[in-house]
Structures are given as structure tokens and as C-alpha cells.
Amino acid sequence: MADKESLHSSGDGRRIPISNFFTDARLVLKPDNLGREILSIALPSAMALTADPIASLVDTAFIGQIGPVELAAVGVSIALFNQISRIAIFPLVSVTTSFVAEEDTLNGASPLVKESKCLKTGPIMDAEMKELIPHEDTGANVHKSDMVGVSFNMVKVKHKRRQVPSASSALVIGGILGLIQAIVLISAAKPLLNFMGVASDSPMLNHAQNYLTLRSLGAPAVLLSLAMQGVFRGFKDTKPPLYATVAGDVTNIALDPLFIFVFHLGVSGAAIAHVICQYLICVILLWSLMEKVDLIPPSIKHLQFDRFLKNGFLLLIRVIAVTFCVTLAASLAARQGSTSMAAFQVCLQVWLAVSLLADGLAVAGQAILAGAFANKDYDKAKATASGVLKLGLVLGMALAFILGTGLHFGAKLFTKDVDVLHLIRIDYFYQFVEATQPINALAFVFDGINFGASDFAYSGFSLVVVAIVSIICLLILSSAGGFIGIWIALTIYMGLRASVGFLRIGTGSGPWELTVTAPGAILGVNSIVLGGLVLNDPLLISH
């Protein structure tokens, strides 16, 4: 077959080196049709993904004008809220994107092929997927000649709103998880903050507890919004999330000074503004999604909870490992005092916010790869992986250049405290933020590639190993080198995340096996990926 011949050498067992994915890197800024498709998904997605970190940066900037104690307190609360949110929603969003992209492809619901009969010519579906995909009615309406005009209109209306079971499942699960998160954070705010290093006699405790309790009221909106973003990513339509998040962030920026300074609510005012912003985003996204998707499934059995739980559990292991590393870093920083924590908070929020720009490329790669796998378009799968890796490397270097001077001079936007600014500038925190951007970008992009290949098992268990090594480094280096040691450990952590991505593709293992051993293999993979289920993959079978 032609697609096989273009992807591998004929049965000689040789694997394509990882460097092949970076060939013609100089042409990356002259994208072809695939490059334009990647950018059309990645750019809006990247801007939408940075919504919550940007809102947190806005809170940080305004609260920093109150004082270093308040800034440090909010820093701990934001770190705790964000990390628990990631545990709750990251697995759901990731599997939702893959499932929706696969179902949308198999339904033939892509705008370019909406009227085609993709289900008749596409890949062979397993019994589970056949049951989940709504069947097209080609019966009586077509044959009643006196109703031809009416029949045509009915068909158009039918295609206007899609039947995508994964979308309904994601919203139900997201709503439940949001309520659980709100209850847990509100009821256990004080002990959780104590765990984060804010002692009972700390001046940060009251401010941190007030901010965390109020902001937790927005948890259902946050998780529902992110679940809906996963649906839109699967459709390769990332503009609605962008519009919603821009509206929410503008609202947050307008309300922050009003509640903090005019109404004199301090950190509580910042939390209230943030909650209003999140519910506005949720309402806008829900309105947009209802125009595209019939959110009421034909029956309860279409709510695919088993598929979400099976694959989501693998990513839950992964996100717990990732979350523990970042949360431990913030906790170790908080134990060294409010001034030091304030400096760490500024750098950490900038580090996370700009790094998420690369996650836009990861989202584009995941959505396109999932659709390509479902449609058995293996040439496009390889080209997509290569394209997003090259764009990720370019983006990382660009971010490093921008942050090289931007954070050094822009730190005053977040605080005017001389001691905090001294720690940021003199102790070279900002240089760690700058230097790690290329590594961060590649780490995020490799995540998206693995998710697009439904390689959830490797993504989960490899990050457990990375987390164990990183936690050891954090404990040792923070003890020996203070804040510099923490940032060195975080750099090691991101480097290891990127390395496991290189290892998977560079060795041609798992879904990237380059020797064809079965029909329909991608890059020689000896497995078939469909509906988030991997068949004949030794890694998944062994676990």
C-alpha cells in the first residue's frame, strides 16, 4: 500500500530517527495546508487555554498593590485551586477531545464532508462504536414523492445539530466533578492550606482561606467550561472558547479594581470577580455548544461512562503525578516566608501562563491525529506529528527571547515591594522562567501527540516515573539551594517530561512502531486505535 511505503522501509525493521520529525524546520514558517489547519486550531486554543492563568495574573497584579502578605496568600490559594482542578478536569478534557474527534470523523460531520457517506467508506468500526454512532435514516421520507420538499428540509435540520454521545458524557461528568471540588475545597480549606505550608499562626492564613473559599464557588463553572472546551477541540473549532474566555477575562479585569479598591473587599473582592468571570464563560460556551450538538442523548447507555473512566483513570494517574510536583514546589516555597513566596508566585504564574501557549499546539495535534487515526489516514498522522513538533520548538525559542527582558522589567506590574523585586531580579528567578521555555513547549506538544494516538497508558505511567525522580530532586535541591534549588528541580522535571516524549517516538515504540506487522498500522504500529481503545498493544495489555 502506498501509505505504508511512504512511512517505513520495507520490512527491514529499521526505525525512523526522531530527527526526521524536525527535517525542513526552516520551512516551518511557510506552512502548507496542514500547517494552516494546525495553526487555525492552535492559535485560538492557545489563547483560550491561557484564560484562567491570565485571570490569575490579573488577580496577582492587583493584589500585589495591597501588600506582599496578601500576594503570597493568594499565590498559595491559586496554586492549590489550580492543581486540584487539574486533577479533576485534565483527564476528562483530554479523553473528550480524542473521543469527540473520532466520533465526529466517523460520523462524517466535518464541515468539509458533512453530506458525504463517510460511515460507508470509512474504517471498520467495532461493536461499541457502531452502537454509539447514531444511524442515518434513509427510509420513508426519501420515497414519498409528494413530500420531497419537506424531506429535504428535514435532512438539513437533522445535520444542523450533531449527535455526539461523548459531548453529553463530558458535561455530566464535568458538572459532578465541579460540585465535588467545590465541596471539598470549601469544607477543607484550612487543613489544605496548612498542608501547603501556611501555618495556623501565619499572617497569610486568613487571606488565603477567604480567597480559596470564595473562589471555590466557581469550581462547577470552571470544570464545565473546560469540559466544553474539550468538545470544541474535538470538533477542531476552537474559536467559541476563545470568544468566551476573552469576554470573561475582560469582565474580570473590569471587576477586580472595583471590588478590591472601591468596595474595599481586598482579596475577597478578587475572588468574587474571578467567580463571576468563570460563570460568564460557562454560559457563553453552553449557549454556543447547544447550537452545534444535541446534548440530550437518545438513551442513558449512550453516556459512555465506562469509556471515560477506563481511559480517564490512566490520565488521572498521570495528572496526580504532575500535580504533586508543582504543588510540592509551591509548598516548599511557602515554607520560606511570605516575601519569598510572593516572588515565587509571580515567576510561577508567568511560567505556567506562557507555557500554556504551547498547549494550543498540543490541542491541534491531538485533534488532528485522533481524526487521522480514526480515518486511517496515516500519512497525515505522521505529517501532523512532525508539524506540531517543529512549531513547538520555534514557539519555545520565541517565548524564551521575549521573556528574557520582559519579566526583568515587567515585574513591577505585579508588585512594588522592593524585597520581592530583589528576589525576582537579583536571584535570577526570571532566568529560569526564560531558559525553560523551549523545553516546556516540547513537553506539552509531546503530550498532545501521545493523546492523539490514544497512548494514554504510556502517558500515565511514564509521568509517574518522571514525578518520582522530580520529587526527589525537589526535596534534595530545595534543602541545599533554597529557591534556586526549587527552580533547578522544576527545570529537571520539565526536561524529563520532554525526554519521555522523545523516547516514545524516537525508539518507534507503542503507537509509533515503524515496522509494519499488521494491516492498517500507523508508522508500523502493531495496534489499531479507535474510540480511545487500543487493541493488541502490549503496553496496555500488560497493565
Structure in words:
- The chain has 543 residues and is mainly α.
- It is built from 22 helices and two strands.
- Strands 1-2 form a two-stranded antiparallel ribbon.
- A hairpin with a 2-residue loop joins strand 1 and strand 2.
- Helix 20 packs across helix 21.
- The longest helix is centred in the last third of the chain and has 51 residues.
- It is globular.
- The N terminus and C terminus are likely disordered.
Tally of helical runs: 22
Portion in helices: over 70%
Question: Residue ranges: pLDDT <50 for 5 or more in a row?
Answer: 1-16, 109-159, 514-543
For the biggest sheet, the summary is: 2 strands, antiparallel
Proportion of residues in extended strands? under 5%
pLDDT averaged residue by residue: 75
Structural class designation = mainly alpha
Oligomeric state of the chains in view: single chain
Mind telling me the C-alpha Rg?
A: 24 Å
- General form: globular
The ordered H/E elements are: HHHHHHHHHHHHHHHHHHHHHEEH
Question: What is the terminal separation in angstroms?
Answer: 33 Å
